[in-house]
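FAQ
Q: What does a multi-component entry look like?
A: The components come first, one per line:
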Amino acid sequence: MRAPALPFDASGLALEDPGPRAATLVARLRLRVLDGRLPAGTRLPTTRALAQALGLSRNTVVRAYEQLLDEGLIASRVGDGSYVAARLPSTAEPAGARGAPASAAPPPDTQVWRQLQAFTPGRTPDGPQRAFRWGSPALDLFPAEVWSRLQARAWRRHEPQSLGYGDPAGLPRLRALLADYLRSARGLHCSADELLITAGAQQAIALAALALLRPGDEAAMEAPGYRAATAALTLAATRVHRVPLDAQGLRPAALAALGPRCRLLYLTPSHQFPTGVSMPLQRRLDLLDWARARQAWILEDDYDSEYRYTGLPLAPMASLDAQRRTLYVGSLSKLLFPGLRLGYLVAPAAWMPTLARLRAVLDRHSACMDQQVLADFIEQGHFLRHLRRMRRAANERRSTLLEAWAQDLTPLGLALPPPDGGLHAFLPLPDARTERALADAAAAAGVEVGPMRQVGGQPDPLGGAGLVLGFAAVPPPQIRDAVRRLAQAWRPCCAADLPCVLRPARSAWRRAEN
Amino acid sequence: MRAPALPFDASGLALEDPGPRAATLVARLRLRVLDGRLPAGTRLPTTRALAQALGLSRNTVVRAYEQLLDEGLIASRVGDGSYVAARLPSTAEPAGARGAPASAAPPPDTQVWRQLQAFTPGRTPDGPQRAFRWGSPALDLFPAEVWSRLQARAWRRHEPQSLGYGDPAGLPRLRALLADYLRSARGLHCSADELLITAGAQQAIALAALALLRPGDEAAMEAPGYRAATAALTLAATRVHRVPLDAQGLRPAALAALGPRCRLLYLTPSHQFPTGVSMPLQRRLDLLDWARARQAWILEDDYDSEYRYTGLPLAPMASLDAQRRTLYVGSLSKLLFPGLRLGYLVAPAAWMPTLARLRAVLDRHSACMDQQVLADFIEQGHFLRHLRRMRRAANERRSTLLEAWAQDLTPLGLALPPPDGGLHAFLPLPDARTERALADAAAAAGVEVGPMRQVGGQPDPLGGAGLVLGFAAVPPPQIRDAVRRLAQAWRPCCAADLPCVLRPARSAWRRAEN
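Then the predicted structure of the entire assembly, as tokens:
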């Protein structure tokens, strides 16, 4: 049957996608009315004619017309069909087609917005794992089959209500298991109701900042330090002071020199990020003194503490703090995998209901099934087994790095201090120029290194420079290969005028017994 | 061999758990030194003696003593063994045993802390799904086998690097699929790079508030309204105005009466929460006018919009807004399951890098494997199939509720307005007293209902009262049974002096064509 002539060009109205047809037709007609392609007073085709022209059922077109009638965009004249309304609802503007940049509102002009421009989130680069990617544990060793099997089991056995909105403090069973783990692994005595499940350490830091800082309060952290923490503190702090380090970590005198408005100190005492320095007991106690005297808080980020190579881990500051002014942040990212987004915040039990409420306001809670599977993983012993395996692998990869380095790079005058713990080594360098030169040369050779300025933000002017080298991401052969490539790439740099000779730092933990 | 006599009581030092022995021994000895049970000058047993007494290897005890020596808690006298140090590091306090409430620091005294006391997060009650639980889709129909199979497949095929830190804006493939879905299902034309994956609608609201509001800015939302949104806006707004409704939703005149500091309006125009009113086109355009005139923003929460029973869904405000002052919030909680914690925020592409940074600061990104599985679920057609199944089930459950209600409760004078969309019905009641009486009677009869004051916060003084009844959580037989129980429980209330007769609201979408 010959398609009836239509009073307007119906091309472009045809519906190619299988979506809800009436709604799509409505959207397209509405757009034409609003942007003027169907001017006021235009007579619309009969529903039968349009249906035939577009290959739709008449019912679909009828529904579409009814909708547009309801919306006031078309009008009916008795016995005379439908017309585009003479007077449209005021100020209806066509925005169906995106991309009218000239009329689009400018972005918000808030301080948060401006501050965010300065923050570049770290992320795992695309492509396979490479040396010396930092922030990455041995992901090649994650027991995916075990995890997957536990997931399948959890789904088979789930009750529908377990898919609903959960406890913002976290799955109770998981909180208890993690509290047990902290007790035995870190000597941190906390109960399940002193532990909040968070979306990684990042959220724990953001939560603490939002909960503890009043308008006008300032925060402090190490310089160089973990930039993602700076960004989180900046959400709530008027100012984030960057406090310089010495061989034992953050310098208490420099901290004390900050005014009384400084109420929150973010710290990585086990294994300073990025330099790797471990803060000794006396220094930790000095900082607890500071917190008590100033009625301030300490946020202790114990990332990576499960990996230690020399000496035993020091007690967390949170376990030394009788005044409970130290909140403890932990993460499963370096034990399991960063993409899981699970961590925890330990705080006094009396605070937990309010912290849980804050979590609920930000994003409710962590995914329920992931928490279930992790709880099963821990309960059935896989977690401790995996932890041991990860420690062994980290140990092996660290040794490989140090041996290969001693062989290929130390002769060039570049000595790498052996890290006491964690998953990265830190190569101190004399200045930013050297840092940039070596980083560029490494990148050109296909080796990932983390320049301190990028990884740790601006240090204090006396802070020097360096490169962060993650050693856990790839197995030993790739480590050796990467060291060889670095040696090739850096040979020219070291042959030049760069003062590359550095003495390895003496570990504070190896004082000989007299 | 007879255990050698020790100079102190070694009971309680024995290590029963299989944890790291040296570390545990260190922790226990440290505690005793710090809390005075091992006073300064006490001579410690030889490493051999203690090892024998505790059944440990001598090496373990040697390591423990070395650690305590490093920490300055014990000292060595040449040829005379080890002693508890005469002068301990200052201010070391025993905090290993938790629960010294008297000395614990008081909770923070911040405005955020105080405001959080007023917020009770909603959560799915423990125990099986029951009528008329609100906020819950038909969880019994979730295709767990399909989801689980896709998860297993994703794990089998995963590359290690996919477990690392991901894109804070979300998995690119998922963003593209959701953008496609919004285009065809909601007529909202947005590209993948205008869509940010969030941890549910809750995080989208929190993100928008934190990004858009400057210190001193105020926000506005409907009253009654979604309380979790109030809490999120309160994170960043000096004040959150509650604006009264009429039969078409939020009243523009009341909004206009707010001062110029009001910069962000949170809205549920498709299906007002909790009353269910759908905002007609003219009212939507009026609010867009307000936003333009005030240089303010609108945050459109389109929860539940996929479920409609009468008429076609109206175009989202975001698609009518040429000025791009409307941000669009969506959630998968009611389509898939709330425990998944996935939603999205649509905003101009130019803003996306900064919004993604803000996400990264708050919690980095959503779990990588969950995003992968969801992308597969959508790509392979399961999502649309599930959507259709959920719509059919919601339709059936709604019809069951309305029929059972007409049979058992309308005769009591309690008429339930049929909801045009969404997963709950709203029973308007004359006053708070009636609301409380009926809610209590329902609870006593084992039926879950949502009192408006609990669910929607304080309405304006003229706002009336009511009960929210979710109808999607359970299959038809349980719905009929719950209605019978309500009829029994409420019969006494309605026989008394409560004015229970209410006329059903006329749906604006059913005006007859002339």
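Q: Is there any commentary attached?
A: Sometimes. For this entry: Residues 382-408 of chain B form the longest helix (27 residues).
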